[in-house]
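Researcher: Structure prediction, please.
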Amino acid sequence: MSRYYDGHASKRQRTDVEDNDVHAGARDSYEDPHKPSPSSVVHVRALSESAQESDLIDALQHFGPISFVVMMPKKRQALVEFQDIESARSCVTYSSKGSIYVSSQPAYFNFSTSQKISRPISEDGRNTNHILLFTILNPVYPITTDVLYTISNPCGPVQRIVIFHKNGLQAMITFETVQCAQRAKASLNGADIYSGCCTLKIEYAKPARLNVYKNDEETWDYTNPDLSREDERLRNSRQVPLLGDHPGEYSGGGASYGSYGWGQGHHGYETSGYPQPPPPPGVSYGNGVEGRMAGRPAHFSPPPQSSSKVLMVYGLDPDRINCDRLFNILCLYGNVEKIKFMKSKPGSAMVEMGESFAVDRAIMNLNQAEIFGKKINLCVSKQQAIVPGQSYDLPDNTTSYKDFTDSRHNRFGSPDKAAKNRIQSPTTLLHFYNAPTDITEEIFTQICVEHSVEPPSSFKTFAGKSEKSSSGLVEWQDKNSAMEALALINHYSMKNTNGPYPYTMKLCFSTNQQCWE
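Model: Predicted structure follows.
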């Protein structure tokens, strides 16, 4: 075969030719990709799979100002454009003598063959901007200017915030400089404000300036604190209202969110059995935030009812979970109607609850809980109902879809039944009831062994509560084991030696204060 084809050498041959100062036809101006000319753009290789844009900026910003970053996660590579070539040269020179760690893993750096990274162009022709558009997905909890300021200001001085509801919940935030906006986008895009919800999608906004006319929970101009005083003067200048501040029926109370939902409260989380969401760093409920925000009220209303009664559950162990076991967990927080596992996403399931309040309760109590050694994530689905489709067999040969609408194990069938349920986050302690009167620790331990559940560390029955059945408390060393026991042996059928109908032992979480009283 000829050494050259159409006057072009192969990649290896061409390098050999150039190294020996021999002209290679049309390729005499060829540049070795392994030794590119200095450029303000640096090519990064061998990144860890978990590396984010913010990790790269943190690792490289001390070499000089960074103008733009493009991540290529599938290739585990990235392009970083510095503001000047000397900063890029410092980065490459340092990496040739020592390691630069990105997200706890050494990466490789070299000059890129590109002199500049092409920016994505918006519809109006603008590129980067010092104003960012925040879209808040799955906003289970209220989002105010206080919240957005607290999470954004560490990335650079925030000047203005405007919250609006045209396409869901969105906000625009003006930063002092483009660099601050870039840092905020890199650090916050894709993050959850609260665990498992209020996820941020961030892009550059189109407007060149935000106009703010008053300082309140939805708009705030941090460059003009007098706006709130002007608003106060306007209110004070109005005539005295004819019938007072508000109708009598609204005095002193907030809205009630359903029979089993949020309790009565005023500008805060006065709840019955529900934990309040954790505030962002620096935010305290009812007292404002620290620093520049000191003294400003931060009122948080109860979360609105979820927009759907369909719940998404991610992160389940596909080899150990099925419809019945997932039902055994979720039935503690509301009636479960349908469960459907997703074939395209192993370990993920859609659950249609009896009401949207049940979705809220499940998310608030089970999100990030651990079962079968895996942390699960729960969020509200965009679907309004589960449409039965073609089912398939799960790894344990059970069906991937099941209808629980008429299940006698649902515990919220009426207000009286619902009132008996204690809404409790996972603990190491389970309360069992409706068990045979002769149940013992040995019998319970044998049940656990048969179902591959870790035997409990403590066991106690309550004496004299009922002659027909028994109840008590069982404790495990960790919450993961208690969750597994709930999934595997809740609603376990036990033989009744005194009658024709078996016992169905039921489990639910209990509080540590009740332990061994």
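Model: Residues 44 and 426 are 43 Å apart (CA to CA).
Researcher: Thanks, that helps.
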